[in-house]
Amino acid sequence: MTDPSSRPPAPTDSAYIAHLWQHPQLTLAIFGMQLLTPEGQALYETAGIPQQMQAALAEAEGLLCVRDFPEGNGGMQLQYWRSHEDLARFAGQLPHMAWWKWLNDHRGQGFGFYHEIYQCKTAEAVFETGTLPVGPALFCEISAVAGGEGRSQKRQQRFAEAAAHSSAS
């Protein structure tokens, strides 16, 4: 993953944007865990998957950023990948394959798991004045903009053009 400490600080006196067009094959993966019973939670935690996942993701090629969110009876993880190919490569290797086997071998035992994968056609990330960097601001170049200037379509078009150029290469 990208080391956020190596990035210049975000402006504090203006809004700023993350240059998502630098990642024209951006893929988002959402993974959710629902802990439905105390026994299911204990079973999942005893398996050590959360710790294994954290270590494996820290070394995953093409993974740009990970954000964790509490959600109801479990949690959700948002992963930003450089490309779908990077995500697919990670998913086809150990330890990821072992986690899927474990989840399938233990389905119906007090927890549920889901995922969503999105390959971005266009994207933008705008951070208003005073917002600390999160998500794309941690792995993209950033630049100051005037807040509320309404240039979303222009940024979306820049992403689309970079994606078209990337797929033509």
CATH topology of the largest domain: Alpha-Beta Plaits
The span between the termini is: 25 Å
The main pleated sheet reads as: 4 strands, antiparallel
N to C succession of SSEs? EEHHEEHHEEEH
Number of helices: 5
Strand coverage percent:
25-35%
Uncertain ranges: none
Radius of gyration equals: 18 Å
**DSSP E strands, number:** 7
Structural class: alpha+beta
Helix content: 25-40%
CATH architecture label of the largest domain? 2-Layer Sandwich
Oligomeric state of shown chains: single chain
CATH top-level class of the largest domain: Alpha Beta
Give the overall shape, derived from the CA principal axes: globular
Count structural domains: 2
Lateral arrangement of strands in the main beta sheet: 3-4-2-5
**What is the overall pLDDT average?**
91
